[in-house]
Amino acid sequence: MLAPGRPKPKPTPETQHFWDGCKEGKLLLQRCGDTGKAYFPPRPFSPYTGTRNVEVFEASGRATLHSYVIHHRPVPGFTPPYAIAVVELEEGPRMMTNIIDCEQTPEALQLDMKMEVAFTPLDEEVTLPLFRPAKESK
Amino acid sequence: MIRPGEIAVVGAAESTKIGAVPGMSQIMLHADAALNAMAETGLKPGDIDGVACVGPMMPQQIAHYLGITPKWVDGTGVGGCSFMLHVRHAAAAIHAGYAKTILITHGESGKSRINATPRPPEPESLNGQFEVPYGPFGPPTLFPIPVLRYMKERGVSHEDLAMVAVVQREWAGRNPRAMFRDPITVDDVLNSRMIAYPFRILQCCLVTDGGGALILTSADRAKDFPTKPVYILGTGESVETNMVSQMKDFTSSSAFRVAGPTAIEAAGIDRSAVDHMMIYDAFAHLPLYGLEDLGFCKPGEAAGFIREGNTRPGGKLPLNTNGGGLSYTHTGMYGMFALQESIRQMRGTAPAQVPGAKISVCHGVGGMFSASGTVVFSNEQP
């Protein structure tokens, strides 16, 4: 369980499946029916063509570290210094996240390093898709 | 189409004081600047027939506070560059005949927080669901998110990003109204307090109180005003995303690449004709993105362009000559102050005046690479 005080996301009808998936340990993305391309954040239509013909699918959870900052100031629910990162999923979309099981230093956090999803409960209701260095890259 | 030089800025003023202004609420900072702009033009509130401002302040609040009955309003709110978009929309409105004399105002009690209204993202918004839970805390943690990727792709060093702040402080040293004026070195920047790696405090904008106002009218009417007209040659605008994590390319802003070239093409000018430039610098990386995305430098060359002194006093492209958001002032929505400096340069009244400057490009960013607006000004009508 994460430290208390962290802001809690509130799902909407369009994003509920994503958060339900996280709770079940599945990283659910959506795919455009016209182009086959994956997208994020969730919405019931394709941002590429506007088609409502989209499907939800389970992503591999594999990603690379695309960019980040390491915040050094106190924030409720967080212990500085902590990285606020963006990972690029194997399927293409990027998402903001935190990196766990890794020192929060520029030396430890190398861009393009391999990451894997690490579902971490925020509380009883919400689980966040955090990421950790992939086992193979350790 | 609107012609280059068809619309002019006749009034331009900042609030009487900027920096720490604990004696004024947010709406009074708007009004103080508006009254200063009206005073220099000889206009009264009853002469204004169009009003634009950006949320949380709504046009009806400003119109009523100042005693204006507008025929045209614009509350476009896309962050700190909203004023560049207001200029663009106001020029189009005057061209279309919707209004004759338009007032654009800004006021923000960013430091003193008097009647300031913070609006944190709602937990069910997309930002609230997909960014906020990971601990970003204001612009210093979000705006620099793409920087490490930019540095890696472009071969830019920490020293390069420190140099941006050093050069702007050099400009600020020539400006009595700048908040920070003492010279700084690259080492000073790299040894200043870490905020959010890779950025330290001297690479982050100030947080101040202040306001600004612009009055636009047709170039034909501009000749009747006591102020020197500053003509609008071209404008551009765009938006990309409200979530920096979803920015398509971390090394280049889509909104910049649309707004900037649109304005320059509309102006019908060559980039080599530009004498003066403002690029909204909420953080030290923005001038690099701006120079590259607007086509003044090739991708990867902006850091060297600044390092080699091209944007310094005496350089071939003086940039952020008021000291910028890093050293002059930054209320939270700095775009109005970038516009004010472009106007001063075109009027020939800037504290650090660029001798003989005839064309100024003023480029703004809104949110965290969310939005962009660009205005090309000249003191000569084409």
From TrEMBL, chain A:
<feature type="domain" description="ChsH2 C-terminal OB-fold">
    <location>
        <begin position="58"/>
        <end position="119"/>
    </location>
</feature>
<dbReference type="InterPro" id="IPR012340">
    <property type="entry name" value="NA-bd_OB-fold"/>
</dbReference>
<dbReference type="Pfam" id="PF12172">
    <property type="entry name" value="zf-ChsH2"/>
</dbReference>
<dbReference type="InterPro" id="IPR022002">
    <property type="entry name" value="ChsH2_Znr"/>
</dbReference>
<dbReference type="Pfam" id="PF01796">
    <property type="entry name" value="OB_ChsH2_C"/>
</dbReference>
<dbReference type="InterPro" id="IPR002878">
    <property type="entry name" value="ChsH2_C"/>
</dbReference>
<feature type="domain" description="ChsH2 rubredoxin-like zinc ribbon">
    <location>
        <begin position="19"/>
        <end position="45"/>
    </location>
</feature>
<dbReference type="InterPro" id="IPR052513">
    <property type="entry name" value="Thioester_dehydratase-like"/>
</dbReference>
<protein>
    <recommendedName>
        <fullName>DUF35 domain-containing protein</fullName>
    </recommendedName>
</protein>
TrEMBL record, chain B:
<dbReference type="GO" id="GO:0003988">
    <property type="term" value="F:acetyl-CoA C-acyltransferase activity"/>
</dbReference>
<feature type="domain" description="Thiolase C-terminal">
    <location>
        <begin position="236"/>
        <end position="379"/>
    </location>
</feature>
<dbReference type="InterPro" id="IPR016039">
    <property type="entry name" value="Thiolase-like"/>
</dbReference>
<dbReference type="Pfam" id="PF22691">
    <property type="entry name" value="Thiolase_C_1"/>
</dbReference>
<keyword id="KW-0808">Transferase</keyword>
<dbReference type="InterPro" id="IPR055140">
    <property type="entry name" value="Thiolase_C_2"/>
</dbReference>
<dbReference type="InterPro" id="IPR002155">
    <property type="entry name" value="Thiolase"/>
</dbReference>
<protein>
    <submittedName>
        <fullName>Acetyl-CoA acetyltransferase</fullName>
    </submittedName>
</protein>
